[in-house]
Amino acid sequence: MLTNPPALHTDDRHSAGFAGLYAEVRKKEQWLSTDAEVAVLPEADALHPHYKEWCMRKRSCKRLLRYLMKRKTKPMALLEVGCGNGWLSRRLADIPFCQVTGIDVNGTELNQAMRVFGKQPNLRFIHGDILHLAAMQKRYDVIVYAASVQYFPELKSTLRFSLLHLLHRDGELHILDSPLYRQENIEKARQKSRAYYHELGFPDMTGHYFHHLLDDLDSFNYKILYDPASLLNGIFTKSNPFYWIRVKN
Predict the structure, then answer these.
(1) Would the pTM count as exceeding 0.85?
(2) Mean pLDDT of all residues in 146-163
(3) DSSP 3-state assignment of 169?
């Protein structure tokens, strides 16, 4: 179990500079959706530019909900870090007797989350980062990082901070829909990301997108719940290319 309070190394993720840049990138990538589209996510029209990705997110969402429902023995407090437009937080709020919090530094999509899902009684959204949450001295039974750890400079310090300051001692932290690399593949992935953001017209985004190793988890009590490299998952062409990781104290 982790005992020494870690320092959380952050850059300007929480600043208006990053949030504004990220919002522009999302717009250029055609990830921003209308309120009507967000309300039904992860269901998406077949003509949507990211339809295949939404199908993947739908499958991973179902797996997570099924897992949490089977293990729920009491009311739970759930936190989604980097909730964006709030669609996954909304789905988590379908779990009976649960209170869900979504947090994000991106005000554009968070405002949409509040607008679309704000009337859900067991769901709330916070504009800020996990440092803000620690100041509130609130603990959660489940923390979810879905498609978000790549925007944190250091995976180890982020997880340690979450485990020590945000998670109940018997709680769980889940990482899903986020790229984690083997050592032999990480430099190629970095080069690919640099080329992508330069071609997209946002080269500064390379300073806010981070490539983490699966080996970074070796000092944690973790388990792979979904391995995209497994033989069984590799048989299916629609399999999710991302790991699903559970971390405990």
Answers:
(1) yes
(2) 96
(3) strand
